[in-house]
Amino acid sequence: MAGSDGCEKLTDGIRILENDGVSYLDGDLSRARTSFSSVPLMTYDYDSGLARGETIIATVKTTVQIHKNDRQVEQLKRPRPDVFGRESARQYVYGFVAAFPLSHDRLNWDLAESEWAFSALEPYAVDARRGRMALAGANYVRLVDMETAKEAPFRHPWLSQVHTVQFSADGKRLLVASSGFDAILEFDTQSGEVIWEWFAWEHGFDRAMLGHHVVRSPEQREALTALGREVILVEDPLKFEFGVATRLIPAHLNSARYDGDGRILASLFHQGAGIIIDRVTGEVRQVISGLVNPHKLSRRRDGGYFISDTRRGKLVLIDEDCRSVSEIALAGLSGIERPELISEFLQNTTELRKDLFACVDIHRNSIWIVDVKRRKYRGIKFPLEWSMHDIARVRQEDVFRIGQLVGTVFSKVEALEEEERKLIRHFSADGRAIATVTLDAQGRAIGLDVVM
User: Fold this and answer.
1) Which residues constitute the domain of residue 354?
2) Structure confidence at residue 8 (pLDDT)
3) Average pLDDT, whole number, for the chain?
């Protein structure tokens, strides 16, 4: 049932794929269609000079990654350890956003390598275009004019765990993924109004991996309850202050990106899939399936797509006809600093320029710079306490402009490393201290009951 664009249609969440008379259920049709290569990154040539002239903006959503590691180890002991995530939504915590030249081989706790850094409440993603910068995190989206320093905060009750943000090509729209409610919202950048929305629960993805359903209307709940189904009703998002917990939510839709011809790309964490959404009809077509907790399906600069196969630790490259053509695996690389029980975790991948990718590897607290055409790579270490979420590449002049706003529009952050502990202090825009986290030699918070 391939569509005209080479991607197969999804019907009620069940994928039946046909190729040369053979049907595949929940399989990867692309591998049946074309030659496919799987290559360990460690077989590429290490190039110590790779991309040293580039500068990136990194979002570090928290600085208590060690606590997240502890929680994940504990979760492996519960029934259905394959269903990833927390059973209850947690409060948001402070992190930071920083610009780093890739001329460094290591990023240190004290942020000495950064061109600038600012505090933010659980920041996830950044984008910049036409003199404006967007920041998404926790339950907010901030849009800032870099020339005037005027800010337009976008408020919406269905914003929760906002994982991605992206300007449209003309800068008139802003697309965000609200992971806490499995929603995609598109804002008009002038009015701040939502001009398009898409909820996974209303397009065939309302049943969670644990068997229950999540819906927005009482009528849907009543219909499913009549069938003997367990249902969570999310009629009023304000009653779910931090969204639906990752383990309980049906999809954990964690990215939304623009594609061509009015289409939207999204990655579905629990379904292990990347999809294309028709803006007009809401219809879904599949790009790839069979992944384990993927992140950030995106269009490549020279055609085709890419996605992080997160818990397999693989960068997957996909052609224009939605056929997987190659994957690059992190397994075998040195520098693992997480407990061995925890799987690989390739958080997000960004294409810095044609064929050059930056991969956030939480397992080894490293950014891997990968040139897929010349088969070269380089690693940049960051502190194991950083829960780095994503990387953005913006123009150097915009990096400078954003830096000029630190201390006014954006709040300062200060990180210190002492003999047996590390501290990070977060300030408000007017200079008041609003949060301090102190970590011991093992990277665990001192004097705080951290829930991650």
Assistant:
1) 8-439
2) 58
3) 92
